[in-house]
Amino acid sequence: MKHNCSNLYFLSTLACQLSECFDETSLELLSADLTALGYMLESLQAHKAAHDRPVTCEVP
User: Fold this and answer.
1) In this structure, what DSSP letter does residue 56 have?
2) CA 34 to CA 29: how far, in whole Å?
3) Using CA atoms, how far apart are residues 38 and 58, in angstroms rounded to an integer?
4) pLDDT tens, 19-54?
């Protein structure tokens, strides 16, 4: 878990910097876009993992 702390510090610093540069509406839009990006990446990873697994069911 120690190696993940630097990512958290980076993201925290980035969030603080963005909050100082953007208005509330822009931050809300950016947050929504980044959330959507996260879901898209998660979906892509799930599809990739599903395609990397060997198929074990047989068609009768």
Assistant:
1) -
2) 9
3) 34
4) 999 999 999 999 999 999 999 999 999 988 888 876
Helices (H), 1-60: 5-21, 24-52
How does 13-41 read in b/e, with b if 16+ C-beta sit within 10 Å?
eeeeeeeeeeeeeeeeeeeeeeeeeeeee
Give the integer Cα–Cα distance in Å for 24 and 42. 27
Q: Determine the pLDDT at residue 33.
A: 97
**Non-local CB neighbours of 22 within 8 Å, separated by 6+ positions:** 30
Q: What is the pTM of this model?
A: 0.69
Residue 6: both structure tokens together: 């630097």
Measure the CA–CA gap between 45 and 39, rounded to whole angstroms: 10
